[in-house]
Amino acid sequence: AELGKYTLVHDADADEWVLTCDGADRAFKRFPSKATALMFLPEHFGESAPASVKIQLLGGAFEVERTYPQPMDPRKSLG
Question: For 52-71, how does the pLDDT look when each residue is reduced to its tens digit (9 = 90+)?
Fold first, then answer.
């Protein structure tokens, strides 16, 4: 299965974390906190819905890119 590509960013105006499928105009899902979003990712993405998620820091820089499930990570990385 091909990896879906997603990005998790903070929406300062709404004070929410927004998960968007790369290339989509609308949010895939919104979360009240980053912690809530990070708990959702491994529950939703995995063997049946593999995905790569770029995760942003509050300041705007990207913190890490995670692959779900982790064994599908195309690179040998810690992320």
Answer: 999 999 988 999 999 998 76
pTM to 2 decimal places: 0.85
Could you check whether the bond before residue 32 is cis, i.e. omega within 30 degrees of 0? no
Q: Is 72 helix (H, G, I), strand (E, B) or coil?
A: helix
The CB-based long-range contact list for 59-68 (8 Å cut-off, 24+ gap) reads 66/41, 67/3, 68/41, 68/42
Transcribe 32-67 into DSSP letters.
Answer: SSHHHHHHHHHHHSSSSS-EEEEEE-TTSSEEEEEE
Exposure letters 34-61 (e unless 16+ CB within 10 A, then b): beebeeebeeebeeeebbbbbbbeeeee
